[in-house]
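Page 47, continued from p. 46.
Same chain as before, 174 aa.
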Amino acid sequence: MLHLLDRFLGLTEKVFFVGANGALIVILFINIANIGSRFLWERGLIWVFPWTTVLFVWMVFLGFYVIYRRNRDIKVDIVYRLLPLRAQNAVTILTNLVIMTLMGIILWQAQTLLPRQVGNMDYVGLQRYWLSVPFYASCSLILLDFLRDTFERLINGPPDEGAQVSANVPGGVQ
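Result:
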């Protein structure tokens, strides 16, 4: 079951990666078009800035999960690495519980915040709550990933030393 969840999370990471990069490419092209329009016709495309804003927000929120999943976030683990493997596992489980609680609070607040984000965005035509949907999706996936990791650690114990060292290498297991 945990393996299937991990595969689903990996697939979702790839979809979010493509989505974040797609948003960046669209931002690039519509801004180039806007610059070209200003140069050729001395008139900008009025819809470019609002769409750039929306796409940038989506890109950041989709990338939020990808960065976490690929282990590219910033960590200060000097003291953690000095601990024995079992203590590292216990600290990781405790940290996972704290992060899952935080993600749960964020997702619980979504039911209150989303209905308040009403009104169409000018020149975009979407309701304002669409700006935060990728954020809540990323938070949900991070919660699932931490839940999977916690259950895996509780069931299988700490990963062996070789997996621990290779997991810290950029790009994952070598």
